[in-house]
Amino acid sequence: MLLAARCYAFAALVCALAIIGQWSPAIGADLWRMPAAALLLALITEGFVNHRLGLQIERCLPARGFLGQPLTSALVVHNPAPYTCQMDTLDEVPASLRADYQPLRWRIPAGNSSTQGVSLVPQELGELEWDSLRARKLGAFGLAWWHSRLRLPATLPVVPDHLHAEDHRAGSEDQGRYVRATSGGGTELMGFRNYQRGDPLRSIDWKATARRATPIVRLCANEEHVELVLAVDAGRTSGIQSGSLTRLGHYANVAARLAEKSLANGDHVGLIVFAEAPIYVAAGLRGASGLQRIRAALAGMTTQARESNPLAAALHIRRIVSQRSLVVMFTDMDEGEIAGQLRRATSFLSPKHLPVVASLMDEDVMEMRWQPAKRWIDPYTMLAALEITKGARRTALHLERSGAHVVLARPAELDKRVLSAYESLRSRRRV
Predict the structure, then answer these.
(1) Distance (Å, rounded) from C-alpha 343 to C-alpha 398?
(2) Which of 13, 70, 197, 271 is most deeply packed, by most CB within 10 A?
């Protein structure tokens, strides 16, 4: 309980009456007792009414949250009391949710309900659990704030992010496969167009050419698919914070989006999560069921305490994948020993497979390179940041010389760069 300003005002009045009674015997020395008793009785009544007519509060959460994407947690409060309720609430959100908000203030008329929401950003995968809500309610007479801690248990599964509408190809979400219109033979006739230089002669439709008196070629649907393998590093360094998420969180989001896009194009997708050794392995997944398996595996990833070994993951990929595949490996390139293993891993995968290494450039390290020196240690910090970025770029250069494609980007750009590399390699039929 916390006394309100009105209660302090009444208490000051009681004290003033007691002082006046002491200095003016004609008024009476016991004059203060009656208002003091009334104040005490009012406080007791407030406490009793607050206990009997408690608020009805319900928490509304979405069915699931997407890692790194804002979601709304709403509170619905019903006031059963016969007077207007004033209240403050503070939700005790899990530590893995970023929430920058002040306590919510409520003013709810008698018998009515009110709803307010706050924006939260999940920063970890897995099940997030809510337990309680702190609230303080102003009493019926406005004399005191009555504190309570309400149990409102709830859970929210947090999964990797998904492709947004602008990232889908037209029609791919409905068809579930990538259909490419080409001139010549195919599985399904899609239409006709005028002959263009470079079209094979066998694609000419002679009947249509005779009718229109100009060369016409057939357009047929040529269904293609790519073998794609996603390798995600869940070793010790994947738990390093990079922006709002850990490195593993960024890798999970990009891998989930890439898998969704690839499966919508009709590709076959495999997933391997590794640290010192492979932790999870699945190959040849297709369609909606394959996407569900991949997203469930990515959602269950946690950072391991062991160092990563990309070479062990590459050996496992060579053992379980027989066809030429596009291997996208999400890992770090700023560790000396891991960088050497990564170079050997990409050399081992090439030339049978086409490796793509995707890694993050840390935002804080990038900013430290050119910050003005204000303390004696700042020049050394700048030199260390420059050395880290140079080391990552040297590793990227060695990987490219060994036949791998490298995507080295800031957290905000990694998703776009990886999807663009996939589309480019696929359109050029490199795999």
Answers:
(1) 7
(2) 271
Which DSSP string corresponds to 151-184? Answer: EEEEEEEEE-----GGGSPTTHHHH-S-EEEEES
| C-alpha span between 154 and 258 (Å, rounded) | 31
Locate 420 and state its tokens: 């663009």
In this predicted model, what pLDDT tens digit does every residue of 161-171 receive, in sequence order? 988 755 554 33
State how far the Cα of 240 lies from the Cα of 279, in Å rounded to an integer.
19
Residue 231 pLDDT > 60, yes or no?
Answer: yes
Beta strand spans in 11-122 (E): 56-60, 65-66, 71-78, 85-91, 97-98, 104-108, 113-122
324-373 tens-digit pLDDT: 899 999 998 866 667 778 888 888 888 888 999 999 887 777 677 777 87
- pTM greater than 0.85 (yes/no): no
Domain 226-427: homologous superfamily in CATH: von Willebrand factor, type A domain (3.40.50.410)
Of all residues in the chain, what percent carry a pLDDT higher than 70?
Answer: 88
Domain assignments of the chain as residue spans, ordered by start: 2-52, 56-159, 179-223, 226-427
Could you give the CA distance from residue 39 to residue 13 in angstroms, rounded to a whole number?
11
> Is the separation of the CB atoms in 240 and 263 below 8 Å?
no
